[in-house]
Amino acid sequence: MTTIKQNVDMMTENKKKDKKSNFNVKILPLFKLTFKMVFLGGPGILYVTIMPFCLLLLEGLVYINLPNVSQAETFSKLQQIIGAMALMPAISVGVFVVPFTLIEIKDSVLFKRIGATSVKPYMFIFTVISASVVMTTIGLFWTFLCGGLFYGWNYGWEVAFPQSFGISLLFMLIVLILSSAVGLLLASFFTSRAVLGAFSGLLFTPSLFFTGALIPIDYILAAPELKYLVYISPYWYCAKPFLDIFTTGNIVMTTQNIINLAVSCGLIVVCIGLTTYRWRWSK
After folding, report:
1. Which ranges constitute the DSSP H helices of the chain?
2. What pLDDT is stored for residue 26 in this prediction?
3. What are phi and psi of 161, to 5 degrees?
4. Radius of gyration over every alpha carbon of the chain, rounded to an integer in angstroms
5. In whole angstroms, what separates CA 105 from the centre of its chain?
6. Which of 89, 182, 210, 273 is the Cys-Cys partner for 230 at CB 3.0 to 4.6 Å?
7. Mean pLDDT per segment of 10 residues, for the chain of length 283 residues?
8. Cα-Cα-Cα-Cα dihedral of 213, 219, 224, 230, to 10°?
9. Residue 18: DSSP 8-state
10. Cα–Cα distance for residue pair 27/34, rounded to 1 Å
11. pLDDT the model gives residue 122
């Protein structure tokens, strides 16, 4: 009985060592290399840090200096811009970081050095999404900090932070999931980084505009020619509930909001389904 128990203990210990060795030899280097590629190897970090900083400063200076505008109205416009700008990290991650990194991973020979050819395909996606979540989180709080430092002294620090932080994070998570799903779909359609870059730029700018990052969303919805065009942006359906919570602190589950959330979930399913169908890991 003692011998059998010792053998079982040895087998259990060997399995633990094998798992630890596999993690140190393959999984950990994969994470390190992926995070390095995400943060240092592409334009994503610029869209997460530099662009929100510049746009918040420039747009804010415009609205605080508008003539014949009350302080309450200026507060509302600044709050809308900061809330919409908080979506920029999640959108840029989906449009730029996820597809570019996955294509780079597929083409890179560096992974052969860490034995990545035997790593399951889902690990590639998991490491990229993990790095994207970290980048989005950094960008989110960086945007709040910039908004507070720029305009919190005159309009109160609440101008730069969600009225209901917990619920806002929930809807931000939906935006991030949708954005990552769009990024996976782009990576499955494009193999050339040049073509992907051109298409991503075309997708990114309208997405910023129709979520209110360039112009307060009230102005867009007030224009008869534009208020229906917002629906061409895949991010609008989850961005609108987020902006409502950011500015008011609550959300009323009207028929329109329920439809928006249903469309967001539907887009996530469609993007992931098409990605699964089109992706050819063997290639």
Report:
1. 2-22, 28-40, 44-45, 51-64, 71-85, 88-92, 98-107, 121-155, 165-189, 193-210, 217-222, 236-248, 255-278
2. 58
3. -130, 150
4. 22
5. 19
6. 210
7. 47 46 56 68 72 86 82 84 86 81 68 53 73 83 87 80 77 85 84 79 84 83 83 84 80 77 88 79 47
8. 20
9. H
10. 11
11. 67
Q: Which has the closest alpha carbon to 31: 109, 129, 127, 142?
A: 127
Q: Which amino acid is at 123?
A: M
Residue 208, both tokens: 């910023």
Predicted confidence at residue 5, as pLDDT, reads 47
Burial bucket for residue 176 (CB in 10 Å: 0-12, 13-18, 19+) = buried
Task: Round to whole Å and give the CA distance between 141 and 123.
Answer: 27
Query: Would you list the domain boundaries of the chain?
Result: 29-278
Distance (Å, whole) CA 260 – CA 266: 10
Distance CA 196, CA 207 (A): 16
In this structure, what token pair is assigned to residue 30? 């994969």
Q: How far apart are CA 221 and CA 229, in angstroms?
A: 9
